[in-house]
Amino acid sequence: MCGIVGYVGDQQAAPVLLDGLARLEYRGYDSAGVAVFGDQGLEVAKAKGRLQVLSDLIDGGRAIHGNVGIGHTRWATHGAPSDVNSHPHMSRSGRIAVVHNGIIENYAELKAFLMGEGVEFASETDTEVVAHLIEYFYKKDNGDLLSAVNRVLHRLEGAYALGILSADDPDQLIAVRKDSPLILGVGQGENFLASDVTAILRYTREVIYLEDGEMALLTPQGVRCFDHLMRPIEKALCHVDWEIDAAEKGGYEHFMFKEIMEQPDAIRRTVSPRIKDGRVHFEDFGLSDQDIREMSRMYIVACGSSYHVGMVGKYNLERMLRRPVEVSLASEFRYMDPIVDEKTLVVVISQSGETLDTMAALREAKRLGAKVLSIVNVMGSSIARESDVVLYTWAGPEISVATTKAYSTQLAVLDLLGLYFAQRLGTLPEEEYQAILDSLLHLPEQIEQVLEQREQIQYLASQFFNHSSVFFIGRNCDYALGLEGSLKLKEISYIHSEAYASGELKHGTISLIEEGTLVIALATYAKLFDKAVSNVVEVRTRGAEVLALTTEDHRADMEGIGAAGVVTVPHSHPVVLPSLGVVPLQLFAYYVALMRGCDIDKPRNLAKSVTVE
Ligand code: F6R
């Protein structure tokens, strides 16, 4: 979704802004713009399309001079992608510039008020009201920008992160946030604001996380923060230890491929430090053994791929804990009147930690009295900060819109959580506990083995990349895995694909199977392998071409029933098998998209972090 960068210091602002925006490109956008104050006053450049169009327009930033500025990549919500709807938006006098992430829900009402005051609007956006409204109060407040911004905030409904620059106070930037991420980067004689830490990592690793309703005033000399009543507040400075090159392609053609290949290391980083003396150990875990024993119900709540992790988690946790686990889409959770009380544990999963629906579900769960444990990748993100307990996935920055290493590390953390709870509940025999733990410890090297098959997977992709419709089928965890395989394929290759629990085929969907339909049969779960064979035979009889994913010991069986291609994963504990099975599915989706010439890291219409409902 939209990205924000702001700079105030002694460097030329425009190149810094363009550089920061380039690092936010992965979030998805359709236009970009910058506003810089310099000897020519407040200059604004905006362009629909790729950031390169904007960069060419201002000669890589060299055409605009000045040491303070704000930049934005826009993902259209109110008003189509166009030069004029791009941010920054200007006040009527052209002296105040605003960039905004989020949605101003009461913008129509505010717009009507401003039009009544004679203000003319240039764009169709909700953001423009903010620029005009700040100017309106700025005049009333006799030129006190901070207080004008504060008065505006009390009138805005919705979600927003704002960066504000005024030609009348040109040595400062103002930052504010509510329900939309915004961080401040603290440097030496220069300071930054950004919607995402990757935008400023090249310049500083010291950041301040703004909380909802807080404001900040940035000058080259420092950063001052205020609460919603404009009382000064002290904020902690946090150090970000992500490597800069973790957010670079490092010789790979696409971030997605790089991130697929990084999975063994990401899982090692996530799992190993949490195993001590043959037991799962979580540092500063905020749930007591009594809390765990008293837990009567557990929900897993997430969106998209993170939800698919929850689907696998349901099978795995119920198996380990013998307790009911419900999985809910975050976008449904808060509207479904969930049965939640103080003995309920809600596990929230989110790579970004900023997904708006997931955040709203978290707040609803807390409102109803539940304890919230989150599995999050981005340190200091909103979801992490509002949870009772946070387990970080130490996957490093994930840039590709289609998640891969975040999915894998989330799954590994959920398995660790299952083991941790099982030990306290006494629900797993010791042998089984050790077998799962052992499989988790061997997972990185087994994923390396799966990655070695990438040429075969590439070959299979070359045989099937022009299919227009694909079905993934499987049972139990293989069904949950199919959901992720199908999402991966459709989101980056634009091929229509669906995942079905194999047993459901006969209840309707099998009528879609005809000569040449591609069916990807997932059959890694040994206990249900015979059932998987029957389903493959069923669809083969109706003319489907089948690609099968199974364990090495079942390769011959699958070939024997006419699978056009068989990919295998090494033997592992059934709880851990989905963590292996997902890798060939990611690779298959990647190669298919590559052969179809798709924009793999930035699929159309998608955004990395979905911060609107
Ligand atoms: C798909 C994908 C999305 C995300 C979803 C949730 O590849 O990445 O489906 O999983 O938008 O995002 P987070 O995990 O950041 O809450």
Compact overview of the structure:
The chain has 613 residues and is α/β, with parallel strands linked by helices.
List the SSEs and their pairings.
Elements: E1 3-8, H1 13-24, E2 31-38, E3 41-48, H2 51-57, E4 68-74, E5 89-90, E6 96-104, H3 107-116, H4 128-140, H5 145-153, E7 158-166, E8 173-178, E9 183-186, E10 191-194, E11 206-209, E12 215-219, E13 222-226, E14 232-233, E15 238-239, H6 255-261, H7 263-271, E16 275-276, E17 279-280, H8 289-294, E18 297-302, H9 304-321, E19 325-329, H10 330-333, E20 344-350, H11 356-367, E21 371-376, H12 382-386, E22 389-392, H13 405-425, H14 430-451, H15 454-464, E23 469-474, H16 477-493, E24 496-501, E25 518-523, H17 529-541, E26 545-551, H18 555-560, E27 565-569, H19 577-595
Parallel strand pairs: 18-19, 18-20, 20-21, 21-22, 23-24, 23-25, 25-26, 26-27
Antiparallel strand pairs: 1-4, 1-10, 2-3, 2-4, 5-6, 6-7, 7-8, 8-12, 9-10, 9-11, 11-15, 12-13, 13-14, 16-17
